[in-house]
Amino acid sequence: MQRYHSPLFNFVCRFLNDYDAASDILQQVFTQLYISLPTLRTGEPLKAWLFRVARNRCLDELRRKRIIHFSELQTPGEDEDLSPLAIIPDASPLPEEIAERHDLQQILQHAISGLPPKFRMVVSLRYASQLSFAEIGQALEMPEATAKTYFQRAKPLLRAALKQHLTLTLGL
Fold it and tell me: To the nearest whole percent, how much of the chain has pLDDT over 90?
């Protein structure tokens, strides 16, 4: 729990934009982990499984919030000219749109995981943990300038990987 609490909480909180709901979802994820411990495959990474469960719980939460009962779509009286769409209060993105954004983040994460290890660590710490180059250098025991260099050398590799993914996806 200590290892994955912060990254999972940040992920869920960004997904839902709701601190209290993120706390509840995180508790559900760790409860699911405890229940699933006997059946988890030890050959697969736990972190990926936890983030998948968190994502699914977030989508469930968003769907639950978006439920609109048929009775709410009927106008309250003949005198009022409100359309059913005017009654719907929530203008936030649909769960599918949020899921699409997170799918794009997964594509980026896949591209990052394809980088050479020395670049991958720098890019991950820069993007995921939002560390400065000085902090990255300190964490990886390298000079700050080396961390900057690795980051700059990783950018074209990431662009190429993302372009290749786009080409494969669109069939160009």
Answer: 17
